[in-house]
Amino acid sequence: MQQGLKSELTKQIIVDEAFKQFYEQGFKTTSIDKIMKASKLTKGAFYHHYTNKKQLALEVIALKVQKRVSDSMILPLYEPGDVIAILNTTFLNRIKSFSGYEKQHGCPMNNLINEIGDFETAYQLALKHIIETWKSALIALIDRGKSEHAIRENVSSKATAIYLISAFEGIRGIRKLYDNDVLLDDYLLGLSEYIQQLQP
To answer: Which residues have a Cβ under 8 Å from the Cβ of 14 and sit 6 or more positions away?
Structure first.
């Protein structure tokens, strides 16, 4: 195997394992030693690619967390079609698609926001960038809905975007406290009613 390719694969293994450990065990309790032991790689391999845990964490946010949110919650908002249908599909169907594992552990981004959002400016900026990108995509979609008369003109695009993101992230965190989906079902009903009320 070419050295460059081997090096990239090693880096990918470290990032994947770090994401898994941060998600399951929490960021602050996950050490470099734990990550490297779980990945079956040496600490020398870690320091070949990263200076410290902070550098690795920023890469996990950029390569894993941001991609996850972008693929599932941001890019779908730019799809053509009925705006209300897009909101329903993106928010309601996404909640329904989560596995038991994902319900148990919550949202990786939200977990990091709660654990290290006030811990380090670099983490704060990286996580805030994801939220701002998501918010901008929602505002653009809601504005399009208003121009197409699918959403009431007096609806605040910014307030609606922030509410939708906050409610979605909030239920992901609260669901970790329960062992069934009764709470999720109530959330889905409330969210569905809220989205319908955006219409003229």
So the answer is: 35, 36, 39, 41, 45, 46, 49, 50, 56
pLDDT per position as a tens digit, 140-189: 999 999 999 999 999 999 999 999 999 999 999 999 999 999 999 999 99
Between CA 13 and CA 30 the distance in angstroms is 16
Dihedral (CA of 64, 70, 71, 72) sign: positive
d(CA 50, CA 66): 19
- Whole-number pLDDT of residue 57: 97
List, for residues 93-114, the tens digit of each pLDDT value. Answer: 999 999 999 999 999 999 999 9
Q: Which pLDDT value is given to residue 95?
A: 93
Taking the complete model, does pTM exceed 0.70, yes or no?
yes
- Cα pseudo-dihedral 155, 84, 166, 168, rounded to 10: 160
What is the DSSP track for 23-80?
Answer: HHH-TTT--HHHHHHHHT--HHHHHHH-SSHHHHHHHHIIIIIHHHHIIIIIGGGGSS
Residues 168, 87: Cα–Cα separation, whole Å: 12
Six-digit token pair at 75? 């890019």
Written as one letter, the residue type at 118 is D
